Amino acid sequence: ERVTVVVCSEMGRHPLLNSWAGKDHWTYTSAMLLGAGVAGGQVIGGLTTDATGHPIDMASGTPTATGTALLPGHLGATLMALGGHDPGALVPGYDPIMAALR
User: What's this model's pTM, rounded to 2 decimal places?
Assistant: First the structure.
């Protein structure tokens, strides 16, 4: 009822191999939220055909061409909202991902 767990990475790996048959850093990654205040049982967002992050509708979490491109600040604002804090005061310029909140 009071604990939220966040599992994430600071980066992802590029979907294609580089010239040395390795994987470069990639700005797209994923996060998993579990617990109190989280609207679970869903996947929010997605990737485009070239494996970049697809903009989403912040209220539904559905990928849409006219949506918001997610940035780390959006996740920060979402976590502040889950903790009962005003995201606008702590993470100015970023809205919480409302689809993730119960």
Answer: 0.84
